[in-house]
Structures are given as structure tokens and as C-alpha cells.
Amino acid sequence: MSQDDLFNLIDNAPPADDGQGPAPNAPSEFSVSEISQKLKSVVEDQFSYVRVRGELSRVTVAKSGHVYTALKDENATLDAICWRGTAGRLSITPEEGLDVIVTGRLTTYPGRSNYQIIIESMELAGEGALLKMLEDRRKKLAAEGLFDDARKRPIPYIPNRIGVITSPTGAVIRDIMHRLMDRFPRPVYLWPAVVQGDQAAAQIIAGVQGFNALPDDSPYRPDVLIVARGGGSLEDLMPFNDECVVRAIAASRIPVICAVGHETDTSLADYAADLRAPTPTGAAEKAVPVRQDLVMSVDRLGARLKAGMLRMHQDRKQILAGLNRGLTHPRRLLEHQAQRLDNLSSRQDSAVLQKMSLDRQKLIDLGARIVHPKYILTQMRQRLGNLDHRLSHGLKSSAQGHRTRLNHFAGRLSLRPYNQEVARQKNALNTLQKRLTQGIHNIMGRHTQRLQATGTMLSSLSYERTLDRGYAIVRDENGAVLSATSDMPPGKSVQLIVKDGTKTAEIKD
Predict the structure, then answer these.
(1) DSSP letters of 223-251?
(2) pLDDT at 10
């Protein structure tokens, strides 16, 4: 049944039943499901491919991944659905208030007796809306600090290897290679990627993340990346304004040079890159210096170094010649010192003779005053005899006095008080020893109980008990724990630690 047939059927409907039974020309009866199905067939046949312009409203992403929204203008609203598989391929992200043109087919939903459009593709309705969306996205990413100059890294002066992410069949890679060969030939590794269309953003992200995933000691890991494409319209450059592409470039550990379009073209990727080049050829110029200029600079510096060395040698030679003229010949110095030595030697001999005469006279004077040793010995023996007599008598007297005092104190001395004090101190010591032993046992018991309680609590809170309950720990290749989905991009290899071992997995979208 066509749409015209449906309208004719309504216009030619017979009058209402008057209670006397069905009229002779009454139409066939339909169930609700049957009439809903016929309406669905008519709508889908007549509007199997339409383009509708309107403003997005009530954008909702369900848990299943399907996007539910509505298109509206000044006078009407049209419900719209974009299935999960299609939503992932859209060139723009549906947002509230965007003026868009969607392509799809109309259908009905019998459960609520309404009609809706199934979206197959979506594009912005005008360049003004596109620019507004890009400006809002730029402000959002700038507020997150992705465009700050502080996080940008310097480009290596002479990189060992260069990675290029662009189309392998376009003129961009040829321009880059030609300019590198002219300036400073370097090994170039190409990551092929389409730079226009629905698949461009995903392939550009894969290129940036792929180069960064190479080990630091890999012979294929580049020192700088060039993300480039030729000129085009604003719609053609949209992959480089994709939020995921911008975040991938900002997160790159390898410095990135972005060269998108012509000199007047600017994309969000240019803001996130460590260096922006006006054209792909300009990116090659910024990646390496001019080898010939370096050779000339080295030659010029070498010539300056040689000239400086010659001047310094000449200056030192002149200084040495001047010093040589001021020096006396060594032989003359020796002759002067020899003569001086002879003079001193003759003067020294007369002084020595005079001193020997004086010393001899002093010895004679001293000999006259010396006493004979026998006389001295006799006097010493007499003095020692007197001292020995006095010492012997004094020792006897002192010993007798001490003996008398000792006998006196011995009669008064008794050990009983001391034995009693020793016994008392021994009893006190035994009491303290028992109290000390009991106190040590009590303290050890309390610490043992606390240690057991702490061990029980530690065992219950350990991550092994958590793993026993069915949980898992996710770590990356370096062993770092991953706790958020932002740390696990698609394609990342992770380790899953469970109760009985470890498994390696790969993150998928």
C-alpha cells in the first residue's frame, strides 16, 4: 500500500456504523499491529534515503553505545537514533545545540506510535557552526593545559631517525623526503595513514601511539615525529581537529612537528604539537639543519681556531725571546758563587782557630773548680748511713702504733650487723627479681596478642584476600598499577593478576 493509497483510503472512508451492521462498502478490519506494520512499510518505502537539517537536542548515549537524540527547528521535532556501530564512524561527535545535516532513513516505532530517523552519517550544517564547535573544543583543551608552552619539548638538533605519519601515496611524503635529502639526509620511517575521511583519526592515533610504543633502545624508534598532510577545506582537515588525535599528540613522549595544510591553515593538532610547521616541506626544514651550512660553519670555526693558535704561538715565542735576553748565563753565575765560596772558606778557618782557643781556656777554668770524685762518694755514704738509721727507727715506731690501733678496733668489730643487712638486701633483691620476671611475662603477653591481632587484620586486608573474592589487579608492561580507563587505551598490553597467577591481555575498544 503506497502513501497515496493510504490517504485515498482515509478520504473515501464510509460513514460511521449506525448500529445496523457493517455497511456494504466498509473497508477491511486491521489489528493495531497490522496497521502499524503497514504504516511502517509505507514510511520506509517512501523515505528510505533522506537528508535532514536541524539542531541536535537531548543527546543521550545509552549503556549499549547507541545514541538517542532529536532534530528540531522552529516548528517541529524529529526523533533520531544512531546505532553503536555507526556512532563510532561519525566524522563529528554529536553535541547539544549543533546545527547538523544527517543522512539516513525514516522509520516508525509502533511501541509509541511515532516516527524517527535512523542516522547513517552526520555533518555540520555550515562553516560557521563548524568554526564555533572547533573554538569551543579549543577552549576546553586549552583549559586542561594541553596547549601550554611549558609542556612542549625541544626538537633534537640533528635527529638520528625521523618518523612520518601521513599518506604513503600523496605528494607530502615525497616533498618531505626531497627536502630532507637536500638539507641533511636522515633515516625516515613512514607510518601509512589516511589523512581524510572517517578512518583518518583512528589511523593517525595508531601511528603516534605505535611509534611511542617502540622500546627506547629499538633501532626503529624515531627521535622526532612529523604528522603531515596537504592543503584542503576545513572539512578535509577535520581529522586533525579530532579531540582524540589532539590528546594522542599531546601525550606523545617523542617530540612532534605538526604540518597540516597550507601556511594559513591551523588545526587543533598544531596547538598540541611541540612545534608547528606551515607546510610539510617546512616540517622537514625544521626537523634537520642544512648539512652544507654545518660543514661551512665547522670549516670557518676550524680556520679561526688555527689562526688563533698561530697567533698565540707567535705571542709566546716573542715573550720567551724577551725573557731569554734578561737571563744571565749559568756559567757566569757559577763562577761568581765559586769565588764567594773561596772567600767564605778563608774567613771560616781563622774564626774556627779563635773559637778553639777560647774553648780550651774554658776547659782549664772548669777543671780547676771540679771536686775529686772520691770525696763526693765519701760524703754520700755518710748521708745514706744517717738516713738509713732514721728510716729504720721511724718504721718500727709507726708499725707499733698501727698495731696498737688495730688491736683496739678488732675488739670492737662485729660481723652480725653486716650479715643482717646482707640478708635483708638479698630478700629485697629476690622480690624485685620475681616482680621483674612477672612484668616481662605480662608485657610479652600483651605484645604477642597485639601482634597476632595486627597479623589477622593485615591478612584480611591484604590484596591476596581481595583476589580470592574474584577481583584482579591490572598492571602495564612496566608493572605500574592501572586504575582508570584513561590509562588503558585500545591496543595497550596489560597484565591481569588473579588469585592463581598472571595473564597477559590486550585492551580493545
Answers:
(1) SEEEEEE----TTTTGGGG-HHHHHHHHH
(2) 47
